[in-house]
Write a structure and sequence with these properties.
The complex is a heterodimer.
Chain A: H1 2-27, H2 36-42, H3 54-91, H4 94-99, H5 115-146, H6 149-163, H7 167-183, H8 194-218, H9 222-229, H10 235-246, H11 248-264, H12 267-273, H13 290-299, H14 307-337
Helix pairs in contact in A: 3-14, 5-8, 5-11, 6-8, 7-8, 7-12, 8-11, 8-12, 9-10, 11-14, 13-14
Chain B: H1 4-10, H2 30-33, H3 37-44, H4 55-59, E1 64-73, E2 76-86, E3 91-95, H5 102-109, E4 119-127, E5 130-131, H6 139-145, E6 146-149, H7 160-170, H8 177-187, H9 191-194, H10 207-219, E7 225-229, H11 237-250, E8 255-259, H12 263-269, E9 272-277, E10 280-286, H13 287-292, H14 297-303
Parallel strand pairs in B: 3-8, 3-9, 6-7, 7-8
Antiparallel strand pairs in B: 1-2, 1-4, 4-5, 9-10
Helix pairs in contact in B: 7-8, 7-10, 8-10, 10-11
Amino acid sequence: MCNVQLEVNALNSNKIAQYLMAKNQMTSPSNGPADPLINASLASPSIHRQKVRWGECFIQFGLAICALISLATTAIIIFILGKESFGFFKSVSPAEFFLGSQWTPLFEPAAYGVLPLVWGTFLITFGAALIAIPLGLASAIYLSEYASRRTRSVLKPCLELLAGIPTVVYGYLALTFVTPLLRSIFPDLQVFNALSGAIVVGIMILPMIATLSDNALKAVPDILRHGAYALGATSFEVTTKVVVPAGLSGVIAAFLLAISRAIGETMAVTLAAGATPNLSLSFLESIQTMTAYIVQVSLGDTPAGGIAYQTLFAVAALLFLITLALNLLSQWILNHYREAYDQD
Amino acid sequence: MNTSETNFTDMPNCSNKGFPPQVNPSAPMPNITHCDTQAVGNEKTDGDAQTTGKPEATEQQPLLQLKQVSIFYDNNAAVRKTSFPIPKHKITAIIGPSGCGKSTLLRAINRMNDFIPNVRLTGKILYNNQDLYSKNVDPVAVRRRIGMVFQKPNPFPKSIYKNIAWGPGINGYQGSMPELVEQSLKQAALWNEVKNRLHDSALSLSGGQQQRLCIARTLAMQPDILLMDEPCSALDPISTAHIEDLLFKLKSNYTIVIVTHSMQQAARISDYTAFMETGHLIEYGDTDQVFTLPKQKRTEEYVTGRFG
């Protein structure tokens, strides 16, 4: 996400640079209109189309292909997920899948109720969001509104560094550090537990929320801040009552992207939270998320084509739908609740 | 000299309880707080109608007095040793070519330069004989008394109503908010245009309307002084005329300082004019005198359009 934005910025600045260069050439005082030579060479004889610009066509075509690759990939994934899930639902009724509370597709008697997996995913995501949203928003506010330029130049790269740590490291950290630490507070904590999973996933998505929200808040024009300050507002009032509402669309988008990431997170939760499909309310027990189940089956010796194999696709399709719904929701929220500060 | 940044956060917060601030006895600027009520109270709200008369007594003492003010960005002086008075209930215009320091000087009056890093001010800005840059002055409280309208209209991305109610709201205004909103919009000559759509977004207004909304928003705070930083530069002539009319009316209740690039505007609306160039005050005087009988050659050249 960050990278994409950076690229877009880079593109824009390129454009700007080109524009400026062009403008400089036009207005450069050294070769003004007084110079007859320049005038002669600038005078273009005709505005009729003279030749096809093949290079231009080629570039356009190439770019279109690149754009289509991602579209095609998405289409293929949806197709495969749909096809295999369809096979799955021929043998297992949707009612059993969505309402059953037992998930034991690999054992006898096999049960195909997906709720425990969904619940596991929800527990992790909810816990992670509970940790990451307040901390992330607070960091973003500090970075964008309070931190001096120097503090910011140190803190922000540190946060981004946190985002670069491989997720398996987080999982390992949960298992060997967070869980033992938590055990001193909750003595009956299991080795694999949802709590440490939620904590490390929360830490993992924290930088994402912080940096994206910081970008959103930084983008709020200073004239709004100054307008508020000029009315006798304190920094805190300016931040909470003008800047955050004005940047809210970006902040919410950051939240939802981070939550999508938490839902899809695999390695850390597999290591930290275990592989026990469990409908328990407790954060202290081992659970299994949808992604962790996919890992478990993919790594095992489940034969291709069987019903256990098809469960993979049914779970993956459900995961896909949940993330999609979340993205749509974020779009909707953006369109309906933002205080647009740009005037066009 | 204290840089603003330290002051801005460290000062004890001027408490929100006593709005309008004039009646708050615990405000950190007690000697600022009492002298203005008699003149402004009448028109503004029923709340502070302490009309004790004798407004002419305050005429002798300018409300604001700049004394040897120099302002530096890092070590570059943007304003050098500038002194002039800003009399009460008059319009004072600051004119001069771009980059002469007039906006910097204006922002210094309500401590808005505090938000620019490495700005330093020497000299004094006396507001009712109290230095706005002394250590025991709370910049937040200063800005409540000295409002500012910016060059580019900057309404909050909220409804028209909320834009006006925002300032009084955060300052704990106790009276009837709808009345205050109506009154402020009427003062800013905007009421008739927006009274049926108070809850529409402020951004749906035209540029000129937005600027009047920003003026109304500032008036709702019932400030003593209105600072205007080229308020018409982004507006068309009709909107500009609206705002000039408005300033003329507001003059009876407010002290206005306006920075403008338009000499005609300064000549039309101001009572006193200060002409600045490269950070120096070249000439200050009665507007008629500055425009018709300038004492300095530079002033004459500028106001007659020979440079700038």
